[in-house]
Amino acid sequence: MIPFQSIDWSQITKTEHPGETGTAYWQTLELGDLRIRKVTYSKNYIADHWCHKGHIVHCLKGEFTSELENGEHFKLTKGMTYVVSDNASSHRSVTQNGVELLIIDGSFLK
C-alpha cells in the first residue's frame, strides 16, 4: 500500500547516465517495487543499450523516438505515452533536441 504523497521533483537528486551519445539525467523515487522517474535526455541522446524492461513512458516536453530492436520506430511528442511489458519488445530511446519524460515501472508490468 502506498499512502498519499506529493512529489517535489526539485528536491530529488539527479543522477547522470551516459548514453551511446549524450546523457540521461534521472530523478528517481522508489516505493517498494514501484519506480517513478523524471528523466531528461540531452540533445543528441542515444541509449547505450536495448532495454527489455517494461515501462509506462509519458512525454512531458520535447520529442523522442522509441526504436525497437526489430527495426520499428515510434515518434512520441509532448502529451504522448507508450506502454510495454517486461520482455515484450526490446527498445531504446533516441532524441535530437532533448526530451523530458515521466517513466513508471515495476512488477505490475511483468
UniProtKB/TrEMBL annotation:
InterPro entries, per the entry: DHCW_cupin, RmlC-like_jellyroll, RmlC_Cupin_sf
Superkingdom, taxonomy of origin: Bacteria
Xref: NCBIfam families: DHCW_cupin
Protein name from the UniProt record: DHCW motif cupin fold protein
Species annotation: Flavobacterium hercynium
